[in-house]
Specification:
The chain is mainly α. The protein has 5 helices and no strands. The C terminus is likely disordered.
């Protein structure tokens, strides 16, 4: 979750190994590489975590509405709640990196 927040705030390209290490409790570079293999592999896990924690509620809201209007309204409500969290300081497009 901490890595997800770093990638969210800084984007993939601007996030450094040091940023990730600090966010993940001072994890050493060898430990990070042993656990994830690379920054890109960690990012891919973060995208999966994002999908499981933030994406699923949005898809559920979109697909469970009784009408198209209700589905879109549900999606927008979940998105507004998600993206207005104080811990999310930038937009939702960071996950489009590699």
């Amino acid at each position: 979750m901490q890595a997800m927040r770093v990638f969210w705030a800084k984007g993939y390209e601007s996030t450094t190994l040091t940023d990730l290490q600090q966010a993940m409790g001072g994890l050493t570079a060898p430990s990070l590489y042993a656990a994830f293999g690379s920054k890109e592999a960690l990012f891919r896990e973060v995208v999966l975590l994002y999908h499981q924690t933030q994406g699923i509620p949005m898809v559920k809201a979109l697909t469970e509405g009784a009408t198209a209007r209700a589905s879109i309204e549900g999606l927008l409500r979940v998105a507004a709640t998600t993206f207005c969290q104080p811990t999310l300081r930038v937009g939702a497009y960071w996950f489009w990196a590699p």
